[in-house]
Amino acid sequence: MLLFLPLLLSLLFPPLPTLSVNQEGLYLQHFKNSLDDPDSTLSSWNVHNDTPCSWFGVKCDATSNVVHSIDLSSKNLAGPFPIGLCRLPNLTFLSLYNNSINSTLPPSLYECQHLEHLDLAQNLLTGALPSTLPDLSNLKYLDLTGNNFSGEIPDTFGRFQKLEVLSLVFNLFDSTIPPFLGNISTLKMLNLSYNPFHPGRIPPELGNLTNLEVLWLTECNLFGEIPDSLGRLKKLTDLDLAINNLNGPIPASLSELTSVVQIELYNNSLTGELPPGMSNLTRLRLLDASMNQLSGQIPDELCRLQLESLNLYENNFGGSLPESIANSPNLYELRLFRNKLTGVLPQNLGKNSPLKWLDVSSNQFSGSIPPTLCEKGQTEEILMIHNYFSGEIPASLGECHSLTRVRLGHNRLNGEVPVGFWGLPHVYLMELVENELSGPIAKTIAGAANLSLLIIAKNNFTGSIPEEIGGVESLMEFSGADNGFSGPLPQSIVRLGQLGTLDLHNNELSGELPNGIQYWTKLNELNLANNQLSGKIPDGIGNLTVLNYLDFSGNRLSGRIPVGLQNMRLNVFNLSNNRLSGELPPLFAKEIYKNSFLENPGLCGDVEWLCDCRAKVKSQGYIWLLRCIFILAGLVFVVGVVWFYLKYKNFKKANRAIDKSKWTLMSFHKLGFSEYEILDCLDEDNVIGTGASGKVYKVVLTSGEVVAVKKLWRGKVKECENDDVEKGWVQDDGFEAEVDTLGRIRHKNIVKLWCCCTARDCKLLVYEYMPNGSLGDLLHSSKGGLLDWPTRYKIALDAAEGLSYLHHDCAPAIVHRDVKSNNILLDGDFGARVADFGVAKVVDATGKGPKSMSVIAGSCGYIAPEYAYTLRVNEKSDIYSFGVVILELVTGRLPVDPEFGEKDLVKWVCTTLDQKGVDHVIDPKLDSCYKEEVCKVLNIGLLCTSPLPINRPSMRRVVKLLQEVGTEKHPQTAKKEGKLSPYYYEDTSDHGSVA
Ligand SMILES: *[C@@H]1O[C@H](CO)[C@@H](O)[C@H](O)[C@H]1NC(C)=O
Ligand SMILES: *[C@@H]1O[C@H](CO)[C@@H](O)[C@H](O)[C@H]1NC(C)=O
């Protein structure tokens, strides 16, 4: 009976499932349980198996069935680093590449002794690198790319014994690159790119890494010279030192890198000539030394190499291009734009090599375009703008079906464009602007299936615009102004549903506007000024909801003004100089619209600058005229007396230094005041603020209206002493144009610029007055407590919406360049509006660099880290500054404060969060019941201040994130979204003007 007991027991209690798998399987189960596995990747990890060897991603030794490798890359797994896996006694390979592992690394990984390959790239790991990592004495491969590791590289790292690959790209390391890395003599690959390192030099010790094959130090904040010692790296195949501040010459020792295949030195400040001896680099395929200050000639020596790609753009190379470059058999990329190259291009360029990309724009090349460019049929881009090329476009290019991007603008090309050239099927940008090309647009254009931008203004094109243009469905911009196009616009043109810009001003177009223009639902700009168009303006025009720019001036249009036009929000609106008649729609009966309707003798309306429609009865005409004259004479007299009185009164104020007669006024709104009234009120008593570029006055006008007047003086003012950031103002012809654009901006979260007055040495900007002053003043004064959390949240959202408008809804986008709490103003209800936008852009020009953008703008504590060394201004730097404003709102602290020591607010928040927790970060004046919301907004602020620009969300996204906090409906999205592939950095857009 006893014999049956086990059987009975096993029937009653079937074996527990966990009992069948071995100990290794249990460790793996434990790992599985610690993870979030939304895609059920680990469903095959089944405890009924004896061993885990058949489980997904697990590999065992074939004889002993012991796990030696785990590969779970890109499986959407989330959770902490699985230190428990190190208990697998023979694990040598572990890859969790591209998941959401989100903890820190444990201080000791001693258990992982056997690991040879550890790939944790593209995860969410944080914290410092454990200094014990080199104790993994078998480790050969360590990839931590794309995490949020911070701090310094531990000094134990010189002790790795077998390490061959060390990749720390895209993290937050902020010390300098340590010399002891030169002790890891086994190293073959050292990748440290894209970290916010402190400024430092390339340690010469790296020259000791004689096994090194790849040295990748892009954007590591390096300065100083490239050490000679790098020439000792005889096995090096890739040398990438791009996007740093390296200076001095390229050392001659680099010509000893006999294995090197690619050298990237672009975007530094290197000077001198390309070193001699480059013909030793027989394996060199790619050389990119663009964006430096290199000079001299492009050496003939280079042409003896098997180069595939040669990029030397934005330097000071002179002389002509060596003829022999055309003999390079593999050359597919040649970019030499923005140099001082002269002479002709080798006329057989492209004959011997599969040339794909050619960019020689902005040089002084002359002569004709080599007819062989596309001989191998692979040419995709031909970019030659701003040179002196002459002659015809070679007929052979009309057959070059591989072309996608053609920019030949601003040359002296003449003759007719080859017929086939108009209809190339893959071309999306065709730019021929400003040449002397003639003839018509060929009907073959119907074949241009991808054409989105057709920019052929300022040539001598003639003939009518072919009906076939209606077949170019992708067309977004058609700019053909300043040509001799004649005849009517083809009816088919209304079929272009993608069209955003149609600019054909200054041509000889005639006939009526086509029917159905309401189908242009994406049309933003319509400029047909100065043609001979006749007939009516179609009523459908009122349906073009995104139209922003409308100019029909200087035509023969007749009939009434479509009432629908009143609904549109137009920045430019010009119907002057036509034959329009009838009554002016009532909304347009305002002074500001006067210039839009001038010179239309048949128009009438209830404004002084048009005749009164009722008075049009002819017989009464002259009585009316007489009456007008009397009234006018009376008015002149009264005005004269008043003027004399005022003049006399002012004359008495002899201390006024301003000569009013020299003022010119530019206004953007209908004004209820004059510039003189404002000038009279600029007393020192009325000063409400002093900024970097001038004083701000509060002016109460006689009408009771209040405005703020900013007075900009010429001259340099130091704003930010320690950082050597200068704000200055050099007389700039662009000022008026710029202010004009800004004046036309209408948005509820942007301070209105009423007008701008200019005199010889002083400019006045008149803004709407904001009674609660600036956010900065209020927040950092004793009244900071007035701002409770809901108000602060609203301010953040308002300001974000204003900035989002500047970035995304203005064309061209406006970069504020000086976002700070002092430039966010508060109205009577604490609604926030962004002020001073863009003006900074024209006001700041210290003339330090050749490009106006190479000027540091912005204020201490708000300047994005990349800005300090790249001098690149874009939306991302605004977003960083806005992030600082958010941190100010959350913490109630100043962006720079002696209390932080060396740090600024961003660093202070990060370290305090790490070391003491969130309660030490949040402004103690805020009610703790909002803590959850405050934390969410704090996170958005941290996101915006990510050291790497790509990790910062766009302003549009910021608005969205903030709104989500308000509605509390959606959980905070993961930080991962900011991570993009390295391809993000390959900016495919051209330098230069178009698109
Ligand atoms: C890590 O991810 C897990 C799973 O998504 C989540 O529950 C946990 O809160 C995260 N931990 C941290 C520190 O973000
Ligand atoms: C696994 O590791 C142990 C000790 O670390 C070693 O003795 C054994 O030979 C290894 N087994 C295999 C199959 O590699």
Automatic annotation (TrEMBL):
Membrane-spanning intervals of the chain: 622-646
Subcellular location: Cell membrane
Binding-site positions, ATP: K711
SMART domains to which the protein is assigned, alphabetical: LRR_TYP (SM00369), S_TKc (SM00220)
GO cellular component: plasma membrane
Gene Ontology biological-process annotations: defense response; post-embryonic development; response to other organism
Naturally occurring in which organism (per UniProt): Prunus avium
Keyword presence, Cell membrane: yes
Name the UniProt record assigns to this protein: non-specific serine/threonine protein kinase
Similarity-based family: Belongs to the protein kinase superfamily. Ser/Thr protein kinase family.
Reaction catalysed by this enzyme: L-threonyl-[protein] + ATP = O-phospho-L-threonyl-[protein] + ADP + H(+); L-seryl-[protein] + ATP = O-phospho-L-seryl-[protein] + ADP + H(+)
Highest taxon listed in the record's lineage: Eukaryota
InterPro entries attached to this UniProt entry: Kinase-like_dom_sf, Leu-rich_rpt, Leu-rich_rpt_typical-subtyp, LRR_dom_sf, LRR_N_plant-typ, LRR_R13L4/SHOC2-like, Plant_LRR-RLKs, Prot_kinase_dom
Assigned keywords, A-Z: ATP-binding, Cell membrane, Glycoprotein, Kinase, Leucine-rich repeat, Membrane, Nucleotide-binding, Phosphoprotein, Repeat, Serine/threonine-protein kinase, Signal, Transferase, Transmembrane, Transmembrane helix
UniProt region (Disordered), positions on chain: 969-995
Domain named Protein kinase: residues: 682-973
Membrane topology value: Single-pass type I membrane protein
Gene3D superfamilies per the UniProt record, alphabetical: Phosphorylase Kinase, domain 1, Ribonuclease Inhibitor, Transferase(Phosphotransferase) domain 1
GO molecular function: ATP binding; protein serine/threonine kinase activity; receptor serine/threonine kinase binding
EC number: 2.7.11.1
